[in-house]
Design goal:
Layout (H helix, E strand, L loop, with lengths): L4 H6 L5 E3 L8 H9 L4 E4 L6 H14 L4 E7 L8 H10 L4 E6 L7 H6 L3 E6 L2 H10 L3 E5 L5 E2 L7 H11 L4 E4 L5 H9 L5 E3 L1 H4 L8 H9 L5 E4 L7 E4 L2 H11 L4 H8 L1 H8 L24 H21 L3
Parallel strand pairs: 1-9, 2-3, 3-4, 4-5, 5-6, 6-8, 8-9
Antiparallel strand pairs: 7-11, 10-11
């Protein structure tokens, strides 16, 4: 049950993916997701060097014999990322798939990834950017709606609308993101025509996730009303939890502050203090609106098993009702 082109192409049991999250999705976390039947993705942006990425990939391989991927970030970065070198490492290490994400088309990386027989999953927040990814050679496209934690794009359209529009237009498999946390969401995504879901916020509230315990407790306490959109003035809109830092950031944006002025709040050091050190008001704490559906911190396996069990029960109920 729940076999799709996504599960078959990636060689996974369930159509559940944990998207790349900077400073969060490393070897141990990605391996736990892949071992549980999903698809784990490690991030490359915070690793900085090709050697560090190679070490992380090999560490992941030592922890699981299941497929996993690597995220290549194309978001604006203060320090240029060695993405071409990262891709060579990915090919040499035989990684199953690459998730490309950001404001640019993955076109410049596609030929080499195709040569290396790496599956390309392009993630974007608009239908046109997903279709552009397909046009240049992506094997799958992930679309995330305004509910999404982290990057949401500039168009403010919800997942419920974006997914069927993209499914109608795309030839490659579509993965849905933004607002997914349980079996109900999985069934809804499949009903809309998607062939998998990508989750971030829900996976953050698991035992294996390496974010600080204070951050996990914050996710448990937060409701669907406790997130906010920031960095719109930079045309790099992100959804985060409301905090003293975001209050200050919004004031800075309102008065037209420059990127340099905002860096103490939005830069990598601030993110590290929040994510790793638990200083919750030091910077941005990424979260989707789906945080309102989070009420416990299970293991990754418990979470995935629960999602699949719920989805099966819903499917059976619908079938028995003649729907």
């Amino acid at each position: 049950m729940f076999k799709t082109r996504v599960t078959e192409m990636l060689g996974i049991k369930y159509p559940i993916i944990c998207g790349g999250m900077n400073l969060i999705t490393g070897a141990e976390f990605a391996a736990s997701i892949s071992d549980a039947g999903g698809f784990g993705i490690i991030t490359s942006a915070h690793l900085e060097t090709p050697k560090a990425l190679r070490d992380e990939i090999r560490k992941t391989k030592s922890l699981t014999d299941k497929p996993f991927g690597v995220n290549i970030s194309m978001f604006p970065s203060i320090k240029p990322l060695p993405n071409r070198e990262f891709i060579e490492v990915i090919i040499e290490e035989g990684v199953k798939a690459v998730e490309t994400s950001g404001h640019q088309s993955p076109e410049e990386y596609v030929p080499r990834l195709k040569e290396g027989k790496v599956i390309i999953i392009h993630k974007a927040a608009t239908v046109r950017h997903c279709l552009r990814g397909q046009e240049v050679g992506a094997d799958m496209v992930t679309i995330v709606g305004i509910e999404n934690g982290g990057a949401t794009g500039m168009e403010d359209v919800g997942t419920l609308v974006l997914v069927p529009i993209l499914v109608d237009a795309a030839k490659v498999p579509v993965i849905a993101g933004g607002g997914f946390a349980d079996g109900r969401g999985l069934i809804a995504a499949l009903a809309l025509g998607a062939e998998g879901i990508v989750m971030g916020t829900r996976f953050m509230a698991t035992k294996e996730c390496p974010i600080h315990p204070k951050y996990k407790e914050w996710l448990l306490e937060a409701t669907e009303r406790d997130t906010i959109l920031v960095m719109r003035s930079l045309r790099n809109t992100h959804r985060v939890l409301k905090s003293k830092a975001t209050d200050e950031l919004l004031k800075m944006e309102a008065r037209g502050a420059s990127l340099e002025e905002m860096l103490p709040i939005i830069g990598g050091n601030a993110s590290k203090r929040v994510i790793v050190e638990g200083e919750l008001d030091a910077g941005q704490a990424f979260s989707g609106e789906v945080v309102g559906l989070i009420h416990d911190i299970p293991t990754v396996k418990e979470l995935i098993d629960r999602i699949i069990s719920e989805a099966k029960l819903i499917s059976q109920r619908l079938h028995s009702s003649g729907i």
